[in-house]
Amino acid sequence: MTEPSKAQPSKIKTKDRIIVALDVETADEARAIVKEIGDAAGAFKIGLQLFTSAGPEFVRALTDAGTRVFLDLKFHDIPTTVAKASVEAARLGVWMFNVHASGGREMMSAAASAVKEFCEHDGRQVPIMLGVTLLTSSNTTTLAEGGIETSVGDYVVNMARLSAVAGLSGVVVSSHEAALVKRAVELSNFCVVTPGIRPIGGTNDDQKRVMTPAEAVFAGSDYLVIGRPITSAADRKRAVTDIVEEIDRPK
Prior knowledge:
Number of strands: 8
Helix content: 40-55%
Structural class: alpha/beta
Strand order of the largest sheet: 1-2-3-4-5-6-7-8
Number of domains: 1
Mean pLDDT: 92
Strand content: 5-15%
CATH architecture: Alpha-Beta Barrel
């Protein structure tokens, strides 16, 4: 098994587990959210919408200012293309980024190797590299539509094992599969990042497999991606601290 490209300590401060999803239209909206929340959260996620709107310059502006960025572009292409795109993500100084695990071992290995080589040569810290196993908007019906006749759990575990063998740092999974992945991948530093997190009283929106923050951490999630419950709140910083308190509340 290839050595993972980046390890994270098993002990993570609760606030550092929170990744706020900047799923907004403009850089100005995103800047306002980052400024309001500040260091109350551990990181901020930039996905396809904001990246397409604001571009790599916005990502670089955040990382240059010391903000931890999860670049959520889910690279999926031939190995050489994904490797080169991954190096550019590392060049932007992002803390974390992802590729689609369904792209296969060769694609993921090429990306992991290229990023590690670039970072070592350039004196940079290797970012956390994640394999996206199955979108939280997907379920067994979605798999069957693609001709995949297996359970969600089995599919996710297979993709997680493949990501680990390819040398990635961890995976993106639903919190419902977090415990399965922790048991299946016997690497203490293998990172599990979960979207589809909804605080108590929140709505599911377009996510099919969701959990509360406390449930997700208990299930084995290392980092939680949370968007609208925070970004749509009247007091965004308070929304983050409420989630932290919810996780830390004695069970």
